[in-house]
Amino acid sequence: MIFNKDTAEKTAELLLQINAIKLNPGNPFTWASGWKSPIYCDNRLILSFPAIRNYVRDEFSKNIEKQFGKPDVIAGVATGAIGIGMLVAESMGLPFVYVRPEPKKHGRQNQVEGFLQKGQSVVIIEDLISTGNSSLLAVDGLREAGAVIKGMAAIFTYGFDVADNNFKDAKIDLYTLSNYQNLLNLAVAKKYITENEEQTLREWNVSPSTWSI
Questions:
Q1: Binding of orotate: at which residues (predicted)?
Q2: What whole-number percentage of the chain has pLDDT above 90?
Q3: In this structure, is residue 172 part of a structural domain?
């Protein structure tokens, strides 16, 4: 679920402007999973654009407090959300930790890095939601450390049904700055893509694991 429509449209436009989101229906990308995809999202680029990273920080900060209330701690999911999560924590005047999808294989074998007390409430920052599996592994790690999860806030989600079901099963409220639906609407309106390309992108979103051109 998006925080609000205005933020969703503005965020989508900014991500397209800096090529954090690339749309290429005619020459699909290949994800690490092997899926063919007409879209590629790299939200880490946001950190290289001060005005945009500040916008994302501020939208997260005000909407997190509005939606979840002020938590005790902000957690960023490694590695993509560490930078923006730390900026949000700084803006809100809160402690910051980051969490891996699984514990380290060596040393102290930590999954959560930073100071976290049992019983503290946490809002998790994520950069991108696809199936939600890796994000929810981070949730499990924080719960194992004794955190009380108030919810997760992400920059963007592809809006897959499998992700919605995974978050529902895990009883985690997920809110995002933008999503696939708002992205496509904006991309057509601003002529980043044609209506035919929009149709291809919508078909992919229905069944990404089996889609091909």
A1: 130
A2: 90
A3: yes
pLDDT category of residue 34 using cuts at 50, 70 and 90: confident
Bridge partners, residue 124, by sequence? 75, 152
42 marked as binding residue: no
**Residue 95 placed within a domain:** yes
The answer to whether position 211 is within a domain reads no
On whether 142 is known to bind a ligand per the annotation, the reply is no
58 labelled binding-site residue: no
Cβ contacts of 51 within 8 Å, gap of 6 or more: none
- Tell whether residue 128 is among the known ligand binding residues: yes
Could you tell me the two tokens for 42?
A: 């790299």
CATH of the domain at 72: 3.40.50.2020
- Quick one: which of 200, 168, 160 has its CA closest to 184? 200
Tell me how many domains the chain contains: 1
On whether 102 is known to bind a ligand per the annotation, the reply is no
Q: Is 34 annotated as a binding residue?
A: no
Q: Was 178 annotated as part of a binding site?
A: no
For 60-70, write each residue's pLDDT tens digit: 999 999 999 99
The predicted model gives 98-119 an average pLDDT of 86
Which domain covers residue 116, as residue numbers? Answer: 5-206
107, pLDDT greater than 80: no
Indicate whether 54 belongs to any domain. yes
133 is in an annotated binding site: yes
Q: Which residues of 124-137 are buried (b: 16+ CB within 10 A; e: fewer)?
A: bbbbbbbbbebbbe
16 is in an annotated binding site: no
Distance CA 18, CA 22 (A): 9
Residue 146 in marked binding region: no
